[in-house]
Amino acid sequence: MTALLEALGARVIAVVAQLGHAARFFVRLCAALPAALLRPGLVLEQIHIIGNRSLSIIAVSGLFVGFVLGLQGYYTLQRYGSAEALGLLVALSLVRELGPVVSALLFAGRAGTSLTAEIGLMKAGEQLAAMEMMAVDPVARILAPRFCAALLVMPLLAAIFSAVGILGGWGVGVLLIGVDAGAFWSQMQSGVDVWKDVANGVIKSAVFGLICAFIALYVGHESKPTPEGVSGATTTTVVVSSLAVLGFDFILTALMFGTS
User: Fold this and answer.
1) Is 154 helix (H, G, I), strand (E, B) or coil?
2) What is the pLDDT of residues 82-141, one digit of tens each?
3) For residues 25 and 30, what is the distance between their CA atoms, to the nearest angstrom?
4) Which of 22, 80, 148, 249 has the most CB atoms less than 10 A away?
């Protein structure tokens, strides 16, 4: 029994120490953001790498999610004689929930793993250590521009996902099934609030971008400098980022829409 308590206590202490180390790394990363903004070329380069190369999977996924929402929403609303509200259903589902969440999950799987592998390989090749030897802070020079780019890109990707998804729902509902186009757009226009729905969705996507980028950079920076360590770090990034996004999605949804 004593050995079990000792093992449990050691595990708890290790987890708390790791959380403290991650918090210190986050503060250090945020403190380096002003220096990164003074080098817009580095940030723009990472926006292209992180955002532009993720655009295709975001757009295609948003289109098919919109297709599914259009079909399922129509069959559900038809039971209650409210098929004209299909546009409102599709828009609220995407703007409030599916747009930020699915975009963040795709971002973690595509860009997050790329960031982790890149930083992990730089650590394995001792490039980060070499920069420290030359009195160059690798957090400010390498990690901060990537973190800043992810913060800027994630809301844009979520917005594109939602916009393409709405077009997909319109294509299925109006062109394929035959829902009235005027009712589709008018119900959406009257039911979607810019501040309550759209702005909260943007806030969600920004928070998810911060979470995914921080986890990817932290795991890559702390990975073991071996091929096995880098491959394991990429897996850890996807798992932890996905769980964190889903957990924070519940918290943010409860705070934003719980009292409405």
Assistant:
1) helix
2) 888 888 899 999 998 899 999 999 999 888 898 999 898 888 888 888 887 887 788 888
3) 9
4) 148
